[in-house]
Amino acid sequence: MTRPLPRTVLITGATGFLGSHVSAALVARGVAVRGLVRRPDAPLPARVEPAHARGLDDREGIAAALRGVEGVIHLAARVHQPAAPGGEAAFRAVNVEGTRLVLEEALAAGVRDFVFASSVKAVGERSETPWDESTPPAPVDPYGVTKLECEALVRSLGEGARVHTPILRLPLVYGPGMKGNALRLFRLVDQGLPLPLGSARNRRSLLFTGNLVAAVFATLESPSGSDTFFVTDAGAPSTPELVTAIARALGRPTRLLPFPVPLLHALGRVGDLFARAIPFPLTTEAVDRLVGSLELDGSRLVRRTGFTRPYTLAEGLRITAEWYRRRSGDGR
Predict the structure, then answer these.
(1) pLDDT tens digits, one per residue of 33-62
(2) What b/e readout covers 10-34, taking b as 16+ CB neighbours within 10 angstroms?
């Protein structure tokens, strides 16, 4: 048995990296999509109707945006940002209370589907063995803490109202339009700089945007999709394997240097001192992301929904490399 897709969907975060991909895919399937935006002139994918709200605390604006909507895909969140006044309270105001308001108004509007984009950070930062959905959560930063609180909120209110509420825990997502760490790694490889990462023996789960979109559809269309799922590409490459694959996709040579991992960690601690005064790329956090493991078991989504990944790592990186080359100022 399959469930029909909602006929009209509101997407929060529709102008963002993930939102643009999910919006375009829904439109291609014939779904009427509204994108929640704060500015009337915010750029949206083709055939996406703008719906205005001042923010996730604008109850009146969000209620108006939800009129006639059958489904919500909630992608908007406060993500990793430099330390600022307010600390965890600032994350909680957007991530928890904003999600609460959107969900309350969605339930009042009679939606039947509410997809929540969570994060692997709701469980933690590093895994010595592959995590699955039974792994006890131990988030370590305000973003992860508030994402875990959101999961409990969505599950409690959604189940109480008998609404279909998939919760998708996402690792690092890459693909056309990406920013942040994924784009920085592409630039480093493309610039041909020797990278001292050849000795890393870690495993790191990733997610291509095309596989994320397929997961959204799988959970919406499956009666068993109202659950919490890790979503990943197949396999979990080491950092040297990933750098080699990116170089191949870009048509660039691989330049990896063997370098003791403990020494990298020591350099990261030194970098922490510099980072207090000036932007500095090599910190403990950066080293942990590059040489630490964060491997996820995504088999539950496959078993419950029949999800299949349309793209391999090589295919996802090839598509991403084509976008990277097309964009203005492609890093060379």
Answers:
(1) 999 998 878 889 889 999 999 999 999 999
(2) bbbbbbbbbbbbbbbbbbeeebbbb
CA 228 to chain centre: 15
Reading across the β-sheet that carries 113-119, which strands appear in turn? 48-52, 32-37, 8-12, 71-74, 113-119, 167-170, 228-230
Q: Which helix (H) or strand (E) holds 7?
A: none
Residue ranges covered by each domain of the chain: 8-170, 180-199+239-291
- Which tens digits make up the pLDDT trace of 235-279? 999 999 999 999 999 999 999 999 999 999 998 899 888 778 877
CATH match for 8-170 among 3.20.20.370, 3.30.565.10, 3.40.50.720, 3.40.30.10:
3.40.50.720
Alpha carbon separation from 115 to 155, 176, 186, 195, 218 (Å, rounded): 11, 22, 30, 39, 11
How far apart (Å, rounded) are the C-alpha atoms in residues 184 and 98? 30
pTM of this prediction exceeds 0.90: yes
| Placement of tokens 């932007």 in the chain | 279
pLDDT at 273: 87
| Residue that is written with structure tokens 């006890």 in the block | 136
Nearest by Cα to 20 from 51, 46, 49: 46
**Spatial distance between the Cα atoms of 215 and 167, rounded to a whole number of angstroms:** 11
H-only helix segments in 110-162 = 142-160
